[in-house]
Amino acid sequence: MTVVKPFTISDMDGNAHEFNADRPSIICFVKEDCPTCRVALPVVSAFFERFSTNYDFYIVGQTSSGNEEIVNNFNPPFNVLDDSALKLSFDTNVETVPTLRVTNAEGEINRELIGFVKAEWKALLDEVLMRVSSEDCKIDWDGLPEWLPGCGSLSVDPLHYDRLLAESTNSPIRARKLELGSLDDQFEFMFDQGFSDGLPVIPPTPERVINMLKGTERESQEIVATMPPNMAPVTVEKIAINSVLAGCKPEYLPVVIASVEAVCTDDFNIHGVMATTMGATPVLVVNGPIRQKISMNMGLGALGQGNRANATIGRALRLIIRNVGGAVPGGTERSTFGNPMKFTMCFAEWEEQSQWEPLHIERGFDLLDSTVTAFAMSGGPSLIIDETANTGAELANTIGEATTTMLNAKAYGFSNCLIAVSPEHATTFGRDNFTKQQLREVMHQSSEKTVTELTSGTGFTPEQRQLYQELGESTRLSKFESDDDINIVVAGSPAGKCTAFFHGWIPQKIGSIPVTRKIEMK
Amino acid sequence: MSNVTLLDPTNEAKPVTRQLATRPEKISGNVALLDISKRQGNIFLDKLEQAIEQRVSGINIKRYVKPTFSKPAPESLRQEIKENNNFVVVALAD
Which chain B residues have any C-beta within 8 angstroms of a chain A C-beta? Predict the structure, then answer.
């Protein structure tokens, strides 16, 4: 049986009324502008006049102005109690007005009447009369309707609900609250506190964060990851706060959560990624049904601006890295130049535009899994134009030659890349059934240089010279040491014979390994 | 404007109180004296200007006046003070 916990509430004169859950009570929630409440109030008044010595009455109104109207219009015999803050209504789960609850001497709710059902109210009267062994209470039941539905309680009105939830005892919010001065500009304040990446951020009010948390069923205090350099616990709540900052919608939150999981792995090595002078940053690729569900861009302009999901998901991750993880330019982030991808870089693969296996299936997931893959990339996207190649082999050669000078023409064997093939180029490959593996092999072949070529002139380190000379001067090396260092997806407009590629960072165990995480859709 | 509550997006390791600007070790360069236009504020600033000149060498004092004490200084005045001075003293007297 539900128990009403003790509460204190003031009447319209400011006098406190205590409910201590130790006497039989009748608690009724009303709103002045509710027609059903206006029907019920005379009945409640009659109950009060008859039974106020047997029961404590708490008639609770939900607005100050409405309470005044009740007093003026009904001249009730009872005090109207002021719940204009809606705290009592919210804490006791009132969804409809009128709601009348009868509690026993232990605070347990014996009866609950919602709206006005004449038969129920008559039955209640009979029960009370029997309990107090009294004569009838005179009420003109014939003049009352058989049934009227109630109205929505203000405590569940969307205008108030999120705020009430944030303020409640069981609030999912635990983050430190920052109280701004009455003359503070919220946006300037957030810049001053260092929360921003240089662009304005959305103020993370409790209501906005509560709304953002609706995007996941995970508990707000669940620790998703530990993020360096602060080694800070990244909770779902902190992810939600930074997602608000970034401008995300709640339905993007699962992608952001999965992105945090991905970058906080030893394999991805977010600390090294952020610290390097090479200016690496996570590039996120999303696969699976969630692409359409949240309207991500995988087509025209997918790597650029204009799509809210693409832009804000990538940005949310970057703000978490900054605000929770603590990697800030000039602090542990030591990138020589930075690059625009450090604001955001997130796009969806256009899986349907090629006959290749999409990225997430290559990486061991099912077609209908939604996933996000994080790549550590130091530059790009750069454009490769080839409007003349008619075969997959020709096109692959173009891509191989273009990526040969990535980072440095002699930087061989210590980097990786992410290639976004356009639909037109994917069609060229498709005509020949040219596979991703064949593309990788051509890239290896077309980039081959001998040790002599790689140690002539400038651009290589003494360590490279020594390594290569140990291999023998005529040994031929490819730009990318491993097939794993060439990552291939399809995206971009159906018009344009071009392919984009991102310059990698240091791959494999000494640097960063791409990580894929499944997105929990809710 | 009503008060606003925001939730902290950081790992909460640093206090939130506003950080003071770094205090220079000595006063030098241009020092602005801003009269907020309360009655006799100009007399007070005259005395203050004399006292500063007696005690601090190597500075140049510039005087400014706000149009009215009851409103914030116009943006143009704030910008002018900021661009042309290293320090500012805002004073009133009644």
Answer: 1-13, 16, 18
Return the beta strands (E) in A180-264 as ranges. Answer: 223-227, 232-235
Estimate to the nearest angstrom the gap between the alpha carbon of A187 and the chain centroid. 21
Task: Give the pairing of strands A498-504 and A371-385.
Answer: antiparallel
> Can you give the pLDDT at residue A199?
98
8 Å CB contact between B32 and B62: yes
Please give the backbone phi and psi of residue A416, each rounded to the nearest 5 degrees, phi first: -140, 180
Say how far apart CA A217 and CA A522 lie, in whole Å: 6
pTM here?
Answer: 0.77
Q: Is the confidence metric ipTM above 0.85 for this complex? A: no
User: What does the alpha-carbon distance between residue B63 and residue A246 come to, in Å, rounded to a whole number?
Assistant: 44
Q: How far is CA A463 from the centre of its chain?
A: 46
Beta-carbon count within 10 A of A130 CB: 9
CATH number of the domain located at residue range(s) A7-167 in this protein: 3.40.30.10
**Sequence-ordered list of residues with C-beta below 8 angstroms from that of A284, at least 6 positions apart, any chain:** A255, A259, A313, A314, A317, A345, A346, A347, A372, A373, A374, A375
Does B19 have pLDDT greater than 70? Answer: no
Cβ–Cβ gap A323/B5 under 8 Å = no
- Mean pLDDT confidence for A467-488: 89
Q: Which of A179, A193, A233 sits opposite B5 (nearest CB)?
A: A179
Q: Three-state SS for A479?
A: coil
Is A192 close to B2, i.e. CB distance below 8 A? no
A228 touches chain B (CB under 8 A): no
Contact B7 A175 (CB under 8 A): yes
With the C-alpha atoms ordered A405, A407, A409, A415, is the resulting torsion angle positive or negative? negative
Q: Indicate the domain borders of chain A.
A: 7-167, 186-518
